[in-house]
Amino acid sequence: MHRDHTSLMKNHPCFSRDAHGKTGRIHLPVAPACNVQCRYCLRKYDCANESRPGVTSMVLNSGEAVERVRNLVERDLRLTVIGIAGPGDPLANDATFEAMRLINREFPHLILCVSTNGLALNDRIEDLMKCGVKSVTVTINATRPEIAERIYRWVNYRGRRYEGRAAAELLVANQWSGLANAINAGFLIKINSVLIPGVNDAEIPLVAEKAGKAGADIHNIIPLNPQAEFSHLSRPSREEIHLLRLICGTHLQQMSHCRQCRADACGTLDDNKDMETEVLAARIGEAYEMMN
Predict the structure, then answer these.
(1) Mean pLDDT of 208-217
(2) How far from chain centre, in Å, is Cα 149?
(3) Nearest CA to 276 among 263, 289, 257, 259?
(4) What is the CATH classification number for the domain harbouring 207?
């Protein structure tokens, strides 16, 4: 299937540098379960795209998620995108599809977006299409299982747990076949890659090349947040990220305005908010009203 992505990219703050300060998005934290253990992920909150994106003040059910969208739409925050990026993997949570179905029915003009590690992407493509999702972000950190094995500890797939090389082989195979099928299905596609110094430095250009040839739309290189098994590493510098983007940009358009959003973020990328901030502001407002 071919889909013209021009309008989607123009109004999606992750895909358009011009849009990121003008249009907003909401991340709905309805997906706590995760099917992959990344070695850079602290599992206080399960997370598909850890580097603070896995953090949320609370987990919502699908009904609460729809209510949050209603409230924020009423506040006119220039919202164009509704995303689910965790705090686990959206495709491992049925609440993702229920929330998106309800939101698409009530707000069909909004762009629906999910972020995933790609393990279950093949299995869920039809479900994503049925509930109105148009944009998919896949976190891919490797093209080869021997590199992926150093990044992922285990995966859970179709009721079975895989570890070590077996987990890496399964994840890499599913990510790349799922990506190809998602592109063929017409989704707008962003690839996220976490730069882990000394682990996948040389691998990320191969990810960009392979994803670019497959037809992905944009690539976002994220610096490692040193924690968990990689707490001993240093966070990549801006110069290192910039150089890698120049290399990868020969294969695939690069995103350079990422804010590494929380799983409950909302607003524009330049005026970011989260539920914790919203709750605090509401409480201050209530206290002020009581005093007056």
Answers:
(1) 97
(2) 21
(3) 263
(4) 3.20.20.70
